[in-house]
Amino acid sequence: MKKVLSLVLALTMVFGLMSFAGAESSEPITITFWNGWTGSDGDVLIEKVDEFNDTNPYGITVEMDINAEFQTKIAATFAADEGPTMILGASNYPDMYGDYLIDMNEIFTETTLVKDDFITSYLDAMSRNGILYGVPFQVTGRYMYWNKDLFEAAGLDPDTPPATYAQWAEFAAQITNEDMNVYGSGIGYNGIFTNLQLLQRMGGLFVDFDADGNLKANFSGNEGYAYFLNWLKAMIDSGDNPLESDTESMFKAGQIGIMPDGAWLSAGADAAGINYGVAMLPYGDAGAMNPSSVTGFCVTKYATDAEKEAAYRFIDWWYEGYEDTETTGSLAWSLECGYPGYYLPAINDARYQASEKLALMTCTDPDASSTYMAPVAFTQTYLLAVEVIEAMIEDVVVDSQDANVALDNAQAEADKLLN
Hints:
- It is a single chain.
- The protein starts with a helix and ends with a helix.
- It has 19 helices and 13 strands.
- By secondary structure, it is an alpha/beta fold.
- 45% of the residues lie in helices and 15% in strands.
- It has two domains: 18-140 and 293-361, 3-Layer(aba) Sandwich (D-Maltodextrin-Binding Protein, domain 2); 143-289 and 380-418, D-Maltodextrin-Binding Protein, domain 2 (3-Layer(aba) Sandwich), CATH 3.40.190.
- Helix 18 (381-397) packs antiparallel against helix 19 (403-418).
- The strands form four sheets. It has a five-stranded mixed sheet. A four-stranded mixed sheet has the order 8-11-7-12.
């Protein structure tokens, strides 16, 4: 009798696994997937979703809605107590929309995914109090790009970018060529989410804990932030950095020597035929930092059990593929879009390892903090960025306000968000 029960139990386990990993669904199902990836990387996402729809054995159709107004749309939809099956949500979504997202910890028992295959800090960014609100899809940081041809024309070593921000300004002055409409530096003064990266490296987190464990803003008297403001202002005033917003297009036109930007710049620079290098941004006085924002696959509470299972199957496929999948979604996102990896099997793939650019953009410093802007306990990072810090930068570089006055004003506005 025990042998019979053991056999029944074993068969039950086998067929249970088959129902997820290999057996075809008896009923086709369509799930909805919303996101805001409208750029060239969105084309890659479309291709991979089409591939899944064509090859999955479960009868699953992922109906994707890519919308430039995704942020507005998802806020309105949740407010109406509705929602799609799955979204790509940022690491602040657990704070903004935690009530509308499910705990996804079970994905590591319901699929073939292994938690230890993900870099822990990026899973942590999508988690709150042990609840996993999303599985990482993209890690977004900023990197230093430089035009090797412009370096060479200025008598600089084309293979050696600036190692410090002081050196950045020195190189920029040598590269600038007014007659050729070339600028040595290309920092868009209102590119707030890029400038946050530079500010943080120079002056640390914008909000942090005090000695008593309370959140406090860090603007007044912050020498690192003052350095950034005066450094950028000086390059703009000297004509070495344009007072422009679209320096990315200028880089792709061969008009910028050095600039910070996201991984997406690589595809455009390649298409434009720019001879460029890429590296991690230098550390500043704040120490070892690689601030990164994380976006993840999130399943909403509006998914039925069948829709949730279908979403998990798609997410599992994104990382693992099938036996005949040539390039998984996570690996394609690095190889084709240029984003550094966070999933170890993709990072360890020979094709990833063969990419010099990906290697240079993958942070291997175990001491580098990936915290972006503030601890997760502070939930107003977006407002802090666009209403406080962006205004602070514009006050200095456009309106010539004293940096310390601008920092004091930013402190007062940030304090309002903390109260």
